[in-house]
């Protein structure tokens, strides 16, 4: 049986500035440096400004380890400066299967 957790970050973007991009890059680097980080995929809704980013994690421990990152905490406190809305959903994956997505498949598919 696979073990994987998805963190789905749904957002409506606001105005991004240089500080946002620098902080976003630092957060992504911290995620990639966290043991148990498996990857991410991003989708843009065709009928709205909504963006969906799905982060893949090997365990809740890995996710919690990333959650204490200082840049990540700072960004969470300042979300109103860069997003009009956001929602985070954490999901445990029971099963994943499929065919045809190649390199675009989920990390454990």
Radius of gyration: 15 Å
State the major sheet. 4 strands, antiparallel
Shape: globular
CATH class category name: Alpha Beta
Task: Note the total helix count.
Answer: 3
How many beta strands in the DSSP annotation? 4
3D architecture notes:
The longest helix has 16 residues, at 18-33. The chain has three helices and four strands. The model has no long low-confidence stretch (mean pLDDT 89). It has one domain (5-104): 2-Layer Sandwich (Alpha-Beta Plaits). It has a four-stranded antiparallel beta sheet with strand order 2-3-1-4. It has helices at 18-33, 60-67, 70-77, and strands at residues 5-13, 37-44, 51-57, 83-92. It has 109 residues and is an alpha+beta fold. InterPro entries: Dimeric_a/b-barrel, Jasmonate_Hydroxylase-like, Monooxy_af470. It holds the Pfam family Monooxy_af470-like. It comes from Haloarcula pellucida. This is Heme-degrading monooxygenase HmoA.
Would you kindly provide a brief summary of this structure?
This is Heme-degrading monooxygenase HmoA. This protein is of the alpha+beta class and 109 residues long. The chain has a single domain (5-104), classed as Alpha-Beta Plaits (2-Layer Sandwich).
């Amino acid at each position: 049986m696979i073990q994987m957790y998805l963190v789905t970050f749904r957002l409506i973007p606001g105005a991004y500035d240089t500080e946002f991009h620098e902080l976003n890059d630092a957060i992504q680097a911290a995620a990639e440096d966290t043991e148990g980080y498996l990857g991410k995929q991003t989708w843009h809704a065709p009928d709205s400004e909504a963006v969906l980013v799905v982060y893949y994690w090997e365990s809740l421990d890995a996710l919690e380890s990333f959650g204490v990152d200082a840049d990540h905490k700072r960004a969470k406190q300042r979300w109103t400066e860069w997003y009009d809305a956001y929602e985070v959903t954490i999901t445990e994956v029971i099963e994943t299967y499929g065919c045809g997505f190649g390199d675009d498949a989920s990390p454990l598919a």
